[in-house]
Amino acid sequence: SQQGEEDPQALSIQEGENATMNCSYKTSINNLQWYRQNSGRGLVHLILIRSNEREKHSGRLRVTLDTSKKSSSLLITASRAADTASYFCATQGAQKLVFGQGTRLTINP
Amino acid sequence: DGGITQSPKYLFRKEGQNVTLSCEQNLNHDAMYWYRQDPGQGLRLIYYSQIVNDFQKGDIAEGYSVSREKKESFPLTVTSAQKNPTAFYLCASTGTEIYNEQFFGPGTRLTVL
């Protein structure tokens, strides 16, 4: 299966700290995407990194991709209470996106 | 405003009844998708459609049916053959370039009593 596996399943940190979430997958991909989901809501796209890219930034987000290890990480710097949500990685091969089970991030004020 | 709408937000049905979930988009996107999400889990693909009048089964299509008669609309029917239909259902769309981000609707929470 191409499905991403995320680690940790849950993460709780203090406001202002950095949060790092990891994603591993099994087969070759075209790109890897990160999404955010607030409780009971739809997903919001955060960032897409293509298989030939190693690092990408967007605001307080930094994503890395290591295709040799089939892994990616999402770093959120200077976390805020509003960052509390579930974060999903999704890998895309030929067509479909395949989602991981997510990391539930809680930012404590 | 451009976006994807799903209705209703909450849906209750008795066991054995078919139910249809609505998904509409005004983003002029070609491809549309239906996902199922169970508590604490990721998304699983039910069906997807890349063009009007064409759709493909995803990973968990059994017990579901779809149609794509219009570019803007991709309704999902949860049939009585679906053994465990209670879940959160999400619709998404993406533009012509399939290697791109997906835009999601707000979801429909279906509870079968």
Write the layout of secondary structure elements.
The complex is a heterodimer of chains A (109) and B (113).
Chain A: E1 5-7, E2 10-14, E3 19-24, E4 31-37, E5 43-50, E6 55-58, E7 61-66, E8 71-76, E9 85-92, E10 97-99, E11 103-108
Parallel strand pairs in A: 2-11
Antiparallel strand pairs in A: 1-3, 3-8, 4-5, 4-9, 6-7, 7-8, 9-10, 9-11
Chain B: E1 4-7, E2 10-13, E3 19-25, E4 31-37, E5 43-51, E6 54-57, E7 64-66, E8 76-78, E9 87-94, E10 103-104, E11 108-112
Parallel strand pairs in B: 2-11
Antiparallel strand pairs in B: 1-3, 3-8, 4-5, 4-9, 5-6, 7-8, 9-10, 9-11
Report on the architecture of this protein:
- The complex is a heterodimer of chains A (109) and B (113).
- Chain A is an all-beta fold.
- Chain A has no helices and eleven strands.
- In chain A, strands 2, 4, 5, 9, 10 and 11 form a six-stranded mixed beta sheet that branches. In chain A, strands 1-3-8-7-6 form a five-stranded antiparallel beta sheet, with no helix packed on it.
- In chain A, a hairpin with a 5-residue loop joins strand 4 (31-37) and strand 5.
- Chain A is globular, with a radius of gyration of 13 Å.
- The relative contact order of chain A is 0.35.
- Chain B is 0% helix and 50% strand.
- Chain B starts with a strand and ends with a strand.
- Chain B has strands at residues 4-7, 10-13, 19-25, 31-37, 43-51, 54-57, 64-66, 76-78, 87-94, 103-104, 108-112.
- Chain B contains no helices and eleven strands.
- In chain B, the strands form two sheets. In chain B, strands 2, 4, 5, 6, 9, 10 and 11 form a seven-stranded mixed beta sheet that branches. In chain B, strands 1-3-8-7 form a four-stranded antiparallel beta sheet, with no helix packed on it.
- With 113 residues, chain B is mainly β.
- The chains are: A mainly beta (109), B mainly beta (113).
- Chains A and B meet through strand 4, strand 5 and strand 10 of A and strand 5, strand 9 and strand 10 of B.
